[in-house]
Design goal:
This protein has a single domain (about 10-245), classed as 3-Layer(aba) Sandwich (Rossmann fold). The strands form two sheets. It has a seven-stranded mixed sheet, with helices on one face. Strands 5-8-7 form a three-stranded antiparallel sheet. The chain is an alpha/beta fold and about 250 residues long. It has six helices and ten strands; from the N terminus they run ββαβαββααβββαβαβ. The radius of gyration is 17 Å and the shape is globular. α2 (about 55-65) links the parallel β3 (about 45-50) and β4. It binds 6-phosphogluconic acid. 6-phosphogluconic acid (6PG) binds next to α2 and β5. The site of 6-phosphogluconic acid has 14 residues, from α2 and β5. Keywords: Hydrolase.
Length: about 250
């Protein structure tokens, strides 16, 4: 990983800094393909949870361009999303649609293993969609997500859990409906903190100077009303994959 600067074991998390957003995206893709192939050498199915946002989509362009993507049996990958904007299937503002357009759709996935959050075209309400999504996660035969990928907003949000928003406090469900989101669109469905941390590895992926303060708080610790990322850790590993701009406040 040329140019990568490993600031390992900062406050019980691993931090890897890459020069810029493109290098970061390519490095996440390489790391992800290797992680999936490693799990597939041990067992049949891999559970992977994805994120929206620009980097969360860019990484699929990087995977699609990576020759080593063929080291993965994509038909044995179960795909989930940490959150989804409560919009109809196919809406260009949905996270899954943006991931697909960036390159995810080019991979030979099994559509039956791609777990999309139901939108208003396929559910009565965001609450009903969240409940169905939680049931889907519970019914899957996994002990934990193998890799939980999470983008981080400048305000410190992860998935659709915004600092200080009441939906952050849901602890009795795997997924929650979010209304009045400070970032549009207002209605969303999100995994809860408990479900997001139900992962062997959590990877926070962040680029840009506007995220530097959120990154520092996420790594060094902060209360939920200031930062959501600080509330989630992987069971085996918590990894921050960031670019130099996002590392400015460390
Ligand atoms: O539903 C959303 O609005 C996105 O999923 C959002 O949570 C995103 O992951 C972060 O805001 C980081 O996005 P960027 O990588 O574009 O900064």
């Amino acid at each position: 990983m040329t140019g990568a600067n490993d600031l390992s074991q900062v406050h019980e998390v691993d931090v890897v800094v890459h020069p810029g957003k493109q290098e970061l995206s390519d490095a996440i893709a390489a790391r992800l393909v290797t992680a999936i192939a490693d799990v597939q050498a041990q067992r049949d199915i891999v559970h992977l949870s994805l994120t929206g946002g620009s980097l969360g989509s860019d990484l699929w362009a990087s995977v699609a361009a990576l020759p080593a993507r063929t080291a993965v049996d994509w038909s044995r990958v179960e795909l989930w999303w940490g959150d989804e904007r409560y919009l109809p299937a196919g809406d260009p503002d949905r996270n899954d649609v943006q991931n697909d357009a960036a390159g995810l759709a080019t991979l030979p996935l099994d559509p039956a293993r791609v777990h999309r959050v139901a939108g208003p075209d396929a559910s009565e309400s965001a609450e009903a969609s969240a409940e169905a999504y939680g049931d889907d996660v519970r019914a899957s035969d996994t002990d934990a997500f193998d890799v939980m990928i999470l983008g981080v907003g400048p305000d410190g949000h992860i998935a659709s859990l915004f600092p200080g928003h009441p939906a952050q406090q849901t602890s009795d469900a795997l997924a929650v409906a979010v209304h009045d989101s400070p970032k549009p669109p207002p209605d969303r469905v999100s995994l809860t903190f408990g479900a997001l941390g139900h992962a062997r590895e959590v990877w926070f992926i962040v680029a840009g100077a506007d995220k530097a303060e959120a990154v520092a708080r996420g790594i060094h610790g902060a209360p939920p009303e200031l930062n959501s990322a600080a509330q989630v850790k992987g069971r085996e590993r918590t990894l921050w994959l960031i670019d130099q701009d996002a590392a400015q406040a460390l």
